[in-house]
Write the structure tokens for this entry.
Amino acid sequence: MIGRGPPADALLDGFARFRREAWPGLSEHYRRLARRAQAARTMIVACADARVDPQTIFAAGPGELFVVRNVANIVPPYEPDERSHGTSAALEFAVRILKVRQIVVLGHSRCEGVRALLQGAGRKGQDFLEPWLCIAEPVLWPVPAGVADRDLERHFEEGVIRLSLANIQTFPWVAERVKAGGLTLTGYHFDIASGRCGGSRRPVRSRWSRKPRPASLPAVCPDTGRRGVRRRRCGPARSGWRRLRARSR
């Protein structure tokens, strides 16, 4: 065991069951995987929510999916600089090194990351969470008048999926592969309660990015009215989601 502190009994018990029940039937497959480099053909960008496991949802086995997970399944726009970019680094690895053929953005119902985007990350989420969620701020306005109260939450969840797909296309080596027909972009929304997964197999173009846009494109913070790049530390938008908050009280 690596690290200090009390043992994670549940994890160790789970590993013991894996060795006892699953390993005998999977051992040869793992040995084959160990003899060669990984060769996943699909990349999944999913939310870190513990209730939504891409490998389970898509019935995939070891070695089939290259998965990156973060809060609210957000993909930032192309911003090559000296800062740390975990999701962007995973995207580059998948597209330029693994040569994946498909990228899937997997969102889901009752997403607490999207809810934090709507309501603000709170006092304890200011260091990293609030700036991260600000990337997805454009989905908050305008809200179409025809969206019913019961559909507002899903509207925003699907908006983040579309925005992430649009941001993926700002990476030049992604755009080149998509244009050449060697890479497809797909968005899915998984409903936790029903187990249904809706989406489109067609490449998605969102209303925020009909063409790949530069990362420095300014956005307007609805609270301050100031213009700035997407990574700006902005508060939640006040228009459009009051109905959702009122309904949840």
User: Anything to note?
Assistant: The radius of gyration is 20 Å.
